[in-house]
Amino acid sequence: MSKKSASLLLVATALLMAAGLGLYLGQPEGTKVMPPSPIKVQPQAVERPFWEEASVPDLVTSDAPTQVVLQPRTGPSIQRDYEAEVRALEQDGEARQLNDSLLLWFDQNPKAATDWINQTERFNDLVPSLSSLALGIANQGQMQTALAWVEAIPDEAHRHEAKLRVYAQQARQRKVNEEGLKAAGFSADDIAIIRGGSLGD
To answer: Which of 9, 44, 83, 158 minimizes the number of CB atoms within 10 Å of its CB?
Structure first.
């Protein structure tokens, strides 16, 4: 190393020492240089839910509700006079309404309704009633009486249809088999219709 370089190195070393000494002398006596302390994060205050601070009143137990007792009606029950309805409709009433009232009258008083059927001039309008009555009577086990009602139907086509329906009902209830249908005079086509299930009550 040359003398010039050695001199420069000594000068630099002296400057560093002087700077350090000056820093030390600049502190008050007895003061220690402390490293910076870490920053403490202050926790944020969390608001409590309002329901935790709400004042809830105590439940008050009320008395059981008073049971309401309905008094039965004391007035007389109104019963329709189906006979009067039928006789009024006999003059110029609509056929469907006449048949509906007649069936209700028959349930109420079969003998009086039958007597009226035998003498009314609107007998030809009573095909639906006669067919329905025949089905009801057959369902009660009175097959011969039911067939008598069927035979009273004046129109041949309606009479045959009513007879098919009566026997179809009997077949569904297993009260008549194919041999019985043949004995009743039905053709093979009629038997197929009766046993096919297309005829309802």
So the answer is: 44
